[in-house]
Amino acid sequence: MSQITVYDHIAQATLDQYDLAQGQCWFLGHSGSVTFRIKTQEEKFLLRIHRAISSSQENVWQSPRVIESELLWLSALDLDTELVVQKPIKNLHDRWVTQVNEDNEDTEIFYCSLLRWIDGEISQAERTPQRPASPAASNLEQ
After folding, report:
1. Choices 3.40.190.10, 3.90.550.10, 1.10.8.140, 3.30.200.20: CATH for 3-141
2. Theoretical Cys-Cys bridge with 98: which of 10, 23, 112, 132, CB 3.0 to 4.6 Å?
3. Nearest-angstrom CA–CA distance, 127 and 49
């Protein structure tokens, strides 16, 4: 199976665990995670397959505990502040991190997460310490 086919398969298997199997899925890119934009009739989401682009990258960011920690933090920011953040979504098993096997055998495990999409534009302004990258642009840059 080619890499993109593997990721398409993982994305679809992940969506099944959120009851979003009917969602349209667009591959966005691969950097620190493989990302897809998901669109249903009601909402849009960002699906992340936590897989580094190369084996030389530190794999701590693919650890389920680290991923869950980030999602808990985003959830707390969403609940306790007025900040606009990508709100994480729990799967049908009431978990933040979704585990998917590459195939039906016990082969490679992929850890995935789903967040609500935030529409935005990539800022053309020069970045400075007072003007960091736009948080809304993070959906577009992943």
Report:
1. 3.30.200.20
2. 112
3. 28
